[in-house]
Amino acid sequence: MSVKQILNRAGKTLSKNSPTILTGIAIAGTFTTAVLAVKATPRALQLLEDEEARLDDDLTVKDKIRVCWKLYLPAAGVGLATAGCIVAANTVNLRRNAALAGLYSITETAFKEYQNKVVETIGSNKERKVRDEVNQDRLDRNPSGANQIFITGKGKVLCYDKLCDRYFESDHETIRKAVNDINLELRDSMFVELNDLYYAIGLAPSGLGSKVGWEIDHGYCEAKFSTGLNENNEPCLVMDFDVYPKFA
Asked: 141 and 241 share a domain?
């Protein structure tokens, strides 16, 4: 590799990992600021005592600052640099999240157009059959015996949460009611988290559920269901969504 290629690759690596690098620098800067401030304090106390002895009077706050400010310049400088790193890391993350949200929106639109064209071309019944087969493949790859089954206390039908890859016990009507309740809340609050739906169903919250949700401008929460069989040939209700939750 040429020197130019090495520099280009190094630049791309630094750019890609800049939030992590900046965060690491900020952490180190926080400790450094504290260490520098602690080291400066004994010298500052000595100067204050000497100044009080020279003036033979108590020092005002202004006098204390006048005597000691130079000692804390290194700590202040590192502290400002640390704050700059934190702001920079946050700015990079915000830009990347905005780009990711834009890409997600484009992908979702393309998928919706494709889905509508499939229904138009082969018909809704054949499209449902294809979707059922896809969901069956998903069940085959994620057998219920290898996963914890959440007992919600709101139904006895084995269900599969396609979005978060987990099994739970519920039933069609319970989920439908939870979706309706969520949409009523969405109409009033303009946004609901995915975890809000999980709470309504009786499921434990998920890490993804606190990051994504439905916005009223992009449509209501609409659950889609299909049926399949688990590894024991027991019927399983697959819960999917017509409108997927978006990043908040």
From this structure: yes
Q: How many domains does the chain have?
A: 2
pTM: 0.60
Distance CA 102, CA 107 (A): 9
Average pLDDT of the chain? 85
- Determine the Cα–Cα distance for residues 30 and 131; give it in Å rounded to an integer: 53
**CA-to-CA distance for 59 and 185, rounded, in angstroms?**
60
Domain that holds residue 23: 3-102
Distance separating alpha carbons of residues 91 and 85, to the nearest angstrom: 10
Q: In what helix (H) or strand (E) does residue 207 lie, and over which residues does it extend?
A: none
- Tell me, yes or no, whether 242 and 128 share the same domain: yes
Q: Is residue 112 included in any domain, yes or no?
A: no
H-helix or E-strand containing 173?
Answer: helix 172-189
Whether residue 128 sits in one domain with residue 98: no
pLDDT for the residue numbered 103: 63
Cα–Cα distance, 40 to 29 (Å, whole number):
16
pLDDT at 124: 82
205 near 108, Cβ under 8 Å? no
**Is residue 76 situated within a structural domain?**
yes
